[in-house]
Design goal:
The complex is a heterodimer of chains A (about 250) and B (about 270). Chain A is of the alpha/beta class and about 250 residues long. Chain A has 10 helices and 9 strands. In chain A, strands 4-5-6-7-8-9 form a 6-stranded parallel beta sheet. In chain A, strands 1-2-3 form a 3-stranded parallel beta sheet. In chain A, α7 links the parallel β7 and β8. The longest helix of chain A is centred in the C-terminal third of the chain and has 18 residues. Chain B is an alpha/beta fold. Helices cover about 40% and strands about 15% of the residues of chain B. Chain B has an 8-stranded parallel beta sheet with strand order 1-2-3-4-5-6-7-8. Classes of the chains: A alpha/beta (about 250), B alpha/beta (about 270). Chains A and B meet through α1, α7, α8 and α9 of A and α1, α2 and α11 of B.
């Protein structure tokens, strides 16, 4: 049987202030982790965009990924009110020019200090939804109630929740039932037979292959999917099928 | 790329080597839904992956009643003799009952093979005076004691407390559960590098890049054990971690089987 082609939705480049074990700050290190695990493509953000400033980090990302086949940029964005980011319309135009088809946001006062309420991010979310640009949100930052509000208000906005863990099924199942635009990535999605249960109840498109490389290894998420007791077709959907579709539809 | 790359990617059981899971559980846990959590379901998952033997402690004994948990463990052992083995749960808040449980479980059930404690769930420090009698019992029998560790600053079961206890009880073979946690592995290794009676298990829900390679490079493969947390978490991710890790196949065998056999008589 041909090897599954893995497209990782959750990778980064850049040094982090609290490395788990290894300092793996650059594209070469990420490439080595991808090769060890057997991962062909990745959607990548820059840690500086999260940890220091989106503008600086997104620029560093552009430089880091220049000429890198199989690595695609994901920007970290802010609402435009302070002038740190262009207004949504202009932002999307720049993203289109630079082939950036997914974004991440880090709200709340512990991260980038803005609210996910409509008075703050409404215009931006509305534009992202219209352009069908996938939005990645760390569930440990936004938590489930905020996520539900976004999913409900913007049904055209594909939302990818990261850091969803084995402890979150009681939060995520009712949302899978209601919202087709909710996706979770697999870097910590390790509930025993949770992948199987979600695929069978709600559909494989809700799960996207993700690893959090190079802070985490990609090898664990690989075997979570390769050994899952689901059909080959469903594995292909998770391994990269849905992500490829989402990125193709974005900004088109 | 390791010799196991194709089989891991095809999802085939690794059945040409023995795999012993030294850190597993069983049953429900209060703050999460576990789709498959009984012993029969665990056996299906073990077969799917090629795991031969599992040493487990039933979760209700860690977050609730240790007697109930130990009874569940014994039932699982007896339902799946030769595949499932027990880690007898002790709790420092119940020093006398813990000693009774150790006597009962190790007398009644020959496949109860190691001891398990979870200080932060019990909210009893692992170096609490009430743990001393329990540790003496374990040391007298030269058994393994698996201790949950995760956070650097865990007030109940830190890597620092574990290594202090390992010095006080050199006859116990201590297992630093989860290798001290994703953020605590480096600290755990610093503390335990010169303590040959401290082992590290690779069980993880957040799997740091190159952690297994780091353990092998620093403390050596002789001190690393395979574990999954099955079914508290899915055992599948740990298969990719160990069988795709950039280590020699001999070191891999030590981790998945040989080291466990050095300490435990699996019959």
């Amino acid at each position: 049987m041909a090897k599954l082609k893995f497209f990782d939705c959750n990778c980064s480049v850049g040094r982090v202030p609290y490395p788990l074990i290894m300092d793996i700050p650059n594209v070469d290190g990420l490439r080595r982790e991808m090769e060890t695990a057997g991962i062909e493509e990745a959607l990548v953000y820059h840690t500086v965009a999260r940890d220091a400033g989106p503008h600086l980090g997104n620029k560093l990302l552009e430089e880091a990924l220049a000429g890198q086949e199989g690595l695609y940029p994901c920007w970290v964005v802010l609402p435009h009110h302070t002038g740190e980011m262009p207004p949504p319309g202009k932002l999307l135009k720049i993203m289109e020019e630079k082939n950036v088809r997914a974004v991440r946001m880090y709200p709340t006062n512990n991260f980038h200090s803005f609210s996910m309420a409509d008075w703050n991010v409404g215009e931006l979310l509305c534009s992202l939804a219209e352009a069908r640009v996938p939005l990645m949100l760390d569930i440990e930052i936004v938590w489930w109630e905020t996520l539900q509000t976004i999913l409900d208000k913007y049904p055209g906005l594909p939302v990818i929740a990261t850091s969803v863990s084995y402890r979150h099924n009681r939060f995520s199942y009712p949302l899978f039932e209601r919202y087709d635009n909710l996706h979770v990535e697999t870097s910590r999605y390790f509930g025993a037979e949770t992948v199987e249960e979600v695929v069978n109840r709600y559909g494989a498109h809700h799960i996207l292959f993700g690893t959090s490389m190079p802070q985490y290894t990609g090898t664990s998420a690989i075997s979570l999917i390769s050994y899952a007791a689901i059909s080959r077709e469903d594995k292909e959907v998770i391994a990269g099928g849905t992500l490829r579709t989402l990125l193709k539809e974005a900004l088109s | 790329m390791t010799d196991y790359f194709d089989r891991i990617h095809e999802g085939l059981p690794i059945d040409d080597v023995e795999i012993i899971d030294m850190h597993a559980h069983l049953g429900p846990y209060f703050n999460m839904h576990i789709p498959s959590m009984d012993a029969d379901g665990m056996i299906i998952m073990m077969d799917q992956l090629g795991i031969d033997k599992t040493v487990l402690s039933a979760t209700p004994g860690l977050c609730g009643d240790m007697v109930l948990g130990n009874n569940m463990t014994i039932d699982a052992i007896r339902s799946h003799r030769g595949r499932m083995y027990g880690a007898c749960i002790v709790n420092g808040n119940y020093p006398e009952l813990s000693l009774d449980e150790l006597e009962r479980c190790f007398t009644e059930e020959p496949d109860m093979v190691i001891v398990k404690t979870h200080p932060i769930l019990a909210k009893c420090k692992m170096d609490d005076y009430r743990m001393q009698g329990i540790c003496k019992w374990v040391a007298d029998r030269k058994l393994m004691l698996l201790v949950h560790t995760w956070l650097d600053q865990d007030p109940y079961g830190s890597q620092d407390q574990l290594t202090r206890m390992a010095k006080d009880y050199p006859d116990i073979s201590w297992i630093m559960g989860h290798s001290g946690g994703p953020y605590g592995t480096t600290h755990g290794i610093e503390l335990a590098a010169d303590l040959p009676n401290v082992m590290f298990d690779i069980t993880m829900s957040m799997c740091p890049a190159r952690q297994i390679e780091f353990l092998v490079d620093t403390v050596g493969a002789d001190r690393v054990l395979f574990g999954t947390d099955n079914p508290f978490i899915d055992p599948k991710p740990q298969m990719g971690r160990i069988f795709l890790a950039d280590i020699s196949n001999e070191d891999r065998m030590k981790i998945v089987s040989w080291n466990a056999r050095r300490y435990v008589d699996f019959g």
